[in-house]
Design goal:
Layout (H helix, E strand, L loop, with lengths): L1 E2 L1 H6 L6 E5 L2 E7 L6 H5 L5 E6 L3 E5 L1 H7 L5 H43 L4 H42 L1 H61 L1
Parallel strand pairs: 3-5
Antiparallel strand pairs: 1-4, 2-3, 4-5
Amino acid sequence: MKLNYKVFKTLVEEPFLTQEVNGNEVGFYYMNETPFLQQFVMRGRFYVWTSDGKNYKLLIERGYYERVSYFFEKEINAVWLNFLEEVTTVNSRMSRNYLMISMGISLAIIILFSILLPEQLTWGIIGALIITLVGNMIHSNRVNKIVRQMNLDAQEEIREILTEDKFNQFLNDQEEYMKEYFAFDEDEEEFDEELEMLETTDETNETDEIEEVEVLEEEESKDGQ
């Protein structure tokens, strides 16, 4: 199973931590040392799993890991890897089945129109396309529903590993860290805005001073005449 493979390939430095999970090697990399920090964190993703189909690399924001490192112990990572592999298997199987059924129905409609109503073949093709689109929507909703339930099951398994209190602590620690992180960004933006305002004020003052000098020069020139 390949997962975020483009990101996986860019992580070539030595990981700061390595784990052996379910027979797979998992390398931990700080997101702060890659070009992906803003891309993921601004979407609320402080950690991202990547894989080449055999081994895994976990890309994680440094401060976030330091705050909730207990959430990334081997036993918990094993649950996540099982979840990711199961999702891939289910998605692949359902997509394959949907593709075969969809192509079969579409082909049958086109053949029937070609034989029985050749003059209406265009409408047959349009009908086949509509059925394919509707079928794709139904298929996507089914897959999303199954994956959502699998994710909830994985979270429940992790809750049992951590215990209820520790799991709730994780949720609180995560929420507090995110608030702190984005509040820091807001402070930086406010500082930049204030700096920009000061620079604009300075430019305005410089312009006013230049105009005052020009006026004085004009008045002195008139007095000299």
